[in-house]
Amino acid sequence: MNSEPHPTNPKRVRFVELSAKALRALADGDLAGGSAEAGVALDPHFVGDRARWIFGYRADQLAGDPSAAPWITRAAVSEPDGAVVGDAGFHGPPDEDGMVEVGFTVVPGYRRQGYARAMLRALLVRAAAEPGVRTVRARVSADNTASLATVAGFGFTRVGEQGNERDGLVIVFEVPAEAIETGHPTASADTTAVPVEP
Ligand SMILES: CC(C)(COP(=O)(O)OP(=O)(O)OC[C@H]1O[C@@H](n2cnc3c(N)ncnc32)[C@H](O)[C@@H]1OP(=O)(O)O)[C@@H](O)C(=O)NCCC(=O)NCCS
Fold it and tell me: What residue spans define the domains of the chain?
């Protein structure tokens, strides 16, 4: 496992902001409204039960803290074909210690093609460029083999665990901003087509 882009088929993604209105539409199960608001054709996975819950949570978060807008989840669009392949972002702005936590989901039909790595790489490129970010955290369920494989090789080290075997063990990984390893980001993560900055 490593963080280098796939040698023959590197994936590239750009991010499209999901406004509070788009998030609320998705939380309400309104795929057409969410897509219209986002300006891209979102996948039905964006209105699955879990996605609706998460987007509702993020909409509430934005209502309470509009400054979170540049940080939280965005739609990830594959380049150059334009397919919406997932969503990814940080859980919020850097906390008082300069920590941001990543989150990412790939639409089932696009899994195992390198998109999660491309999305995570793009998030890490951004985090490394943000003066306010000192540490990036990833929390991964111990039984989430795919996610464990995704975070491997970017410089993350295991710093702890949460929960328990019965309720589900979560492994906590962190990487200092200056130790992030993203390989050759321009080969697989286009963060310039739609800037992630506000
Ligand atoms: C975890 C998830 C994002 C991976 O997305 P993906 O696009 O399939 O991942 P990639 O194709 O970029 O693969 C990344 C690594 O995971 C491995 N992987 C992906 N799916 C796997 C699976 N089902 N079993 C074992 N390994 C898997 C890949 O082989 C690759 O490792 P490698 O570089 O060593 O070969 C996706 O399965 C998903 O959205 N799951 C549900 C949401 C979730 O768990 N999000 C993460 C929360 S922390």
Answer: 12-187
Dihedral sign (CA 101, 107, 111, 117): negative
- This prediction's pTM: 0.90
Q: Which of 45, 73, 111 for mutating ligand 1's site (highest number of atoms within 8 Å of CB)?
A: 111
- With H, G, I as helix, E, B as strand and everything else as coil, classify residue 190: coil
Gap from CA of 63 to ligand 1 centroid (Å): 31
In total, the chain counts a number of residues equal to 198
Domain 12-187 has CATH 3.40.630.30: yes
Residue 69 CB-density burial (10 A; 0-12 exposed, 13-18 middle, 19+ buried): middle
pLDDT digit string (tens) for 78-87?
999 999 999 9
> Do residues 184 and 33 touch, judged by C-beta distance below 8 A?
no
